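idk why but the lab printer keeps eating my pages so im just putting this in chat instead. protein + pyridoxal-5'-phosphate:
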Amino acid sequence: MSAPPVLSNTERPQDPRPQLRPPAGCMLIANPRAQRGPYPAALRSLMNLDRARENRRWLASWAALARGATPLHDLPDLAARLGVARLSVKDESVRSPLGSFKALGAPIALVRQILRRHPDLDPAALLNGHHAGLLQDTTVVSATDGNHGRGLAAAARSIGCCCVIVLHAHVSAEREQAIAVHGARIVRIAGNYDDSVEEAARLAAANGWQVVSDTSYEGYEDIPRDVMQGYATIAAEVLEQTGAAANEPGAFTHLFLQGGVGGLAAGVASCFWEFHGAQRPRFVVVEPRQADCLFQSAVQGRAARATGSVDSVMAGLACGETSPLAWRFLQPGIDAFMTIEDEAAVQAMRVLAAGSGQDIPIVAGESGAAGLAGLQALRSDAAGSAQLGLDERSRVLLINTEGATAPAVYEALVGETADAVLQRQAGWQAGARDAR
Ligand SMILES: Cc1ncc(COP(=O)(O)O)c(C=O)c1O
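predcted complex ->
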């Protein structure tokens, strides 16, 4: 395969809001293996809409999550600046006090794992701790860069089992604290995310614990599959919120999906693909340059490792190894993979926080804003945009996958606390109500 093109660096006009500078160093590869036919039966047997709907029903009974769907915000001013017809953000920062979409995956995987051993238990009763007595000697363990561990710790506490979370050297103290408040035991190791995945597997084998990981590896696929399928709730809600019709083109022509190990992208894209079939939107996966395992997988045509340092301000995306199970979905399902610089994600956080006359201010964490950074990079690259059919008629969906999950980091990067942004958001909403 020829080397992927480097995106160009053209200037955009001045604007009073934070600059949308085209970031340097972005890479883009159109996926030559992407398919546009119906959702393949082999994938459907692994992840499907029926299970996604069942997960959604179960999650509705978990008190840790907000009632109802998360908001789908339209940002018309930003759409105009980026030269697209529509730009919408599905805001997972308000999914729960856990702060990210990861709260959808761990509880489902944990419930499904317990049901494998106790098939007669009721999922809602489980999530509400009614079987805590039965499960008090069960211990679950996982590595995390923060958000998955937080979701797992909270789910384990609700269900009544014990939880051990393995953190690598780059996970901040405030992310550790956010996990520990849910009663999880923390194990700190030197090294990076991939080292913590290995350590979690070792601890589980040594102690008879159950790994509940968001990434798969050889011989370990059922639980990560359940985690990914929990994320499909996001897609199922969007389909409902936009009144989408099966096998017809939907409200969005392009989706930008953040990539860590690939679970979010696989969980969300598979749901849209099954629903829309050959009319599915185009999917673009966005990763940090230093943690480009999915981009490298696209280059090599198999689940691959990152080439960089695997250390990024986008902590949730700082993963060095592709989940092989996720890759089974991404290889045929994703139209393009791209990498962005840390600085681009920070700029995107500021742009979303600022809002404007017509755009609601949004608290987007480092990984949450990465989709916007990817879109912005692609809109400053005429050849890349043309290759992906991204133009002034495009309707783009972004997923704000996290809020200020590390509040001190957020304040340092955005120059404002998340609470201050939320106050401006409330003011914006009040103004919008008055105007109606
Ligand atoms: C906020 C956020 N966004 C996106 C991702 C990427 O998800 P995945 O690792 O499933 O690709 C993560 C992973 O932890 C995350 O925390």
